[in-house]
Specification:
220 residues
Length: 220
């Protein structure tokens, strides 16, 4: 093996090690957000809250599996494994580009709907809304004034007695910031992974070609 092939082989190996870690990061981020928004989905009648974290978990799992396949293909220099890996990486790269574009295009309009959803949840069932307050350390959709009589529940404050003077801020702003940060993080991570995936695809095809040529020479 020449110096060039040696470098391609180990660059591809370490690139896939990065992909495996990025896949685990996506899984961890998705799980963390899913646990965080559990109380919101129980109170708010908007099932699409689950879409982003579940998509992150699924994509992270697929990235991890394909990266593991790529590591094995690079180490063994198996032409079939490397070609299969490159095709899957290309498909995955296109899907992640699509996901990132959809996130950045729709994130603002999605986030703007959160105050309305929270107001509806608050009007429908304040007891269920207390779980959101407990999770995000907030008070009412817009603050303590959301409770017209200003008799605040304990979930609105860090200490008792709970009054407007020691209460948390409104939930709408905190939940909006949470989803805005999560959306940007997912989109940015997807774009970063796509950029390195493009290099990995080229290296994978180069190494596959080298492995195929070696196999041909071995038969002569």
């Amino acid at each position: 093996m020449g110096c060039g092939e040696f470098l391609v082989k180990y660059i591809l190996f370490f690139a896939n090690l990065f992909f495996a870690l990025a896949g685990l990061a996506l899984i961890g981020l998705g799980v963390a957000v899913e646990l965080q928004i559990k109380e919101i989905t129980n109170a708010v009648e908007a099932s699409n809250f689950h879409i982003a974290p579940i998509a992150a978990i699924v994509v992270g799992s697929v990235v991890f599996l394909i990266a593991f396949f790529g590591c094995c293909g690079a180490v063994r220099e198996n032409n079939c494994m490397l070609i299969t890996y490159s095709i899957f990486m290309l498909i995955l790269m296109l899907l992640k580009v699509t996901l990132a574009v959809l996130i950045f295009v729709n994130l603002d309009s999605y986030v703007k709907e959160i105050p309305r959803w929270l107001n509806e949840a608050f009007s429908r069932d304040q007891t269920a809304f207390h779980q959101i307050e407990k999770t995000f350390k907030c008070c009412g959709p817009t603050g303590p004034l959301s409770y017209g009589n200003l008799v605040l529940p304990e979930t609105c404050c860090a200490s008792t007695p709970c009054t407007p003077f020691n209460s948390y801020t409104g939930c709408a702003t905190l939940v909006e910031d949470f989803f805005q940060t999560f959306g940007v993080a997912i989109g940015a991570l997807a774009i970063a992974v796509v950029a390195i995936e493009l290099v990995a695809i080229v290296f994978g095809l180069c190494l596959a070609n080298h492995a195929r040529n070696q196999s041909r020479r071995a038969h002569y």
